[in-house]
Specification:
Number of domains: 1
Shape: globular
CATH superfamily: Class I glutamine amidotransferase (GATase) domain
Strand order of the largest sheet: 2-1-3-4-11-10-9-6-7
CATH topology: Rossmann fold
Number of strands: 11
Order of helices and strands: EHEEHEHEHEHEEEEEH
Largest sheet: 9 strands, mixed
CATH architecture: 3-Layer(aba) Sandwich
Helix content: 25-40%
Oligomer: single chain
CATH class: Alpha Beta
């Protein structure tokens, strides 16, 4: 079976340098990636799973927040990613959210964000680096725990916002030492995981590679199941008297 195809959303400004690293992680996990940006064709039916990548802040209009003049927004990308998340669940395709993508996963399901996360969680260590210098704790009995184990995890951090109220069907999968939510996941299938850090920069770490591998594995399983459904449909169409 060929490698599952993963659609990856990126910023129009910085995606050219971010996408190759995400694509490398997807390839190492057994998949292949295609880049999506707002304004170009992005059809969920052409891929087996999606990654909502990092980048600009999500417009507060989507979750009842306040407009901050210093925020860099991309409404077209917001609309694209929100649509793709909803369509992925409708078509039973897995989703991985990275940083902004984790926040979009939450917002698309009706959740809200802390616009100044470190102003709320003053006990959280405020770091801004692609190096693994922030400690997160994995929640017990979660999918993330099954992927990475329960030991505290060292991650990077390039965010100022974080999940506040959870979206429908989501639960907390990890938090930092100050209580800030660092990962969310969907309780039911299809597989959906959002991490506040950037695992694509930590491809040398086994536990980070496991995140991409879980997405690709779910995408492959979903494609196999869809193929079986299509074969049954063809058989029924060829022999309608069976029904």
């Amino acid at each position: 079976m060929s490698r599952p195809l993963i659609g990856v959303t990126t910023s129009r400004r910085s995606g050219w340098r971010v996408f190759p690293l995400v694509a490398l992680n997807v390839w190492l996990a057994g998949g292949r990636a295609t880049r999506w940006v707002a304004g170009r064709d992005a059809h969920i039916d052409r891929v087996d799973g999606i990654i909502i990548g990092g980048g600009d802040d999500i417009s507060p209009d989507l979750y009842g927040g306040k407009l901050v003049t210093s925020a860099r927004l991309d409404p077209a990308r917001d609309a694209l990613e929100r649509r793709l998340v909803c369509e992925a669940f409708e078509r039973h395709k897995p989703v991985l959210g990275i940083c902004r993508g984790s926040q979009m996963l939450n917002v698309a399901l009706g959740g809200t964000l802390h616009q100044d996360a470190y102003g709320v969680y003053t006990a959280s260590k405020h770091v801004w680096t692609i190096l693994p210098r922030k400690t997160v704790r994995i929640c017990d009995e979660t999918r993330l725990a099954g992927l990475s184990g329960m030991a505290p995890m060292k991650v990077n951090a390039l965010h100022s916002q974080a999940v506040d109220a959870l979206g429908e069907g989501l639960r907390v999968a990890a938090h930092d030492q100050g209580g800030m939510i660092q990962a969310v996941e969907r309780v039911a299938d299809p597989f959906a995981l959002g991490v506040q850090w950037h695992p694509e920069h930590l491809f040398y770490a086994r536990r980070q590679r496991a995140i991409f591998r879980a997405l690709v594995t779910a995408a492959r399983a979903g494609r196999r199941d869809q193929g079986q459904i299509e074969r049954v449909r063809e058989e029924v169409e060829e022999a309608p008297g069976l029904l």
